[in-house]
Amino acid sequence: MSGLMLFAFLFLLAMSVPVAISIGLGSTAAVFGTDNLSMIVIAQQLFIAIDKYPLAAIPFFILAGNLMETGGISRRLVDFAKSIIGGIQGGLACSCVLTCMIFASVSGSSVATTFAIGAILIPALVKHAYPRNYAAALQASSAELGVIIPPSIPLILYGVSAEVSIGELFIAGFGPGLLIGGALILYVWLYAKFKGYGKQDHEGRLSFGVATQKASFALLMPVVILGGIYGGIFTPTEASVVAVFYALIVGFFIYRELTLKALIPVLKKSVISSAVIMFIIATAGLFSFLISRAGIPEALGSWLTEVLKSPGWFLLGVNVALFIIGMFIETSASIIILAPILVPIAIQFGIDPVHFGLIMVVNLALGMITPPFGVNLFAACAVARISLDKIIPPLLGFVGVIIACLMLITYVPDISLFLRDWVYASSAQ
User: Fold this and answer.
1) In angstroms, rounded to a whole number, what is the distance separating the alpha carbons of residues 212 and 219?
2) Distances in Å between the alpha carbon of 384 and those of 73, 115, 140, 406?
3) pLDDT at 186 over 90
4) Backbone angles phi, psi at 90, to 5 degrees
5) What is the spatial distance between Cα 332 and Cα 154, in angstroms, rounded to a whole number?
6) Residue 340 has pLDDT above 80, yes or no
7) pLDDT tens digit string along 84-128?
8) DSSP 8-state assignment for residue 367
9) Coil, helix or strand for 114?
């Protein structure tokens, strides 16, 4: 059964069939080829995979991100970031990273961040004489923070799949997110100095006071959302609904850039994006059920325990495997399929499942900015209006920086766990 399913999946993938459909058809073929399985199992497992309350947060966070883009919140966040570090050489490029960090603290989606911030900053970077392909690579890489800094859709998926506290994952996500964001800012600044980019970045920059005043309601949004979660006022799932209502109120009544006419395309775009993710989750759930039924997780666990005899070697092997997998399989599908398999093995090696979750998410997020199926690359190329091959050369430096950060996150657990442990220790007193 597992051999037939894997062969069908890889064959369809090689034929350029979308990942979610390849997973679904491969799983269906496996059910057909198994005598003691009824076809009703397909419908049951598809429903069970998406019948999870925390998954309700996904469409709402996607909608909140789209409302922020249309309602003027994104543009004000860009102006605020420019007012902080836009005055130095390369400051506009650094502002791109900082804006993505702020936007990510509400949207939870790297693709939404790419479109919302890239539509503003890529043309601005090109206007300030940055190469178009470099601007697109910078935006795609910076937007990766959208899946690391909480609230994060992949972290929600990992929490549901591995039965790990989403609240703990959100707290733990700040350390890796800030590390990667800080490293990218340092790299961008040094690269601009080396290449001579961004000498006029200070032009058109608002003062910090004016920018803060204009962006005050935009900046209050992550405070309300994250403060409500960590203050115990609402759950991460409920926070996604609060984010939508906040974005609607600010866009309609405060900034007055959101109209009823503009709301229809926003809703349509959000529905399509949500449907794609939920379809992936459903088919990946069926795939995961059949893999578990075939005993693959136990067999893989035994093999890894025998071959990789220490936690260090296990983590290195997982990093290499996830990096390769992330290049070909969409992040959501990878998490849902692999988390139930790998987390029990990680626990056997004494690795905290929250720490392991951050390793998985950061690793698979790299797949969003690596060919051939990096969704952030396609999004950034669409905004910059360039072909995929043009973005690859400047992208290599960003990938190298993130891989270096990943190694630190992997082998220094306190980067992920310090804040979580401190928060829980403080609440226990």
Assistant:
1) 8
2) 21, 10, 11, 28
3) yes
4) 80, 10
5) 6
6) yes
7) 887 788 888 898 898 888 877 776 667 777 777 887 888 888 888
8) G
9) helix
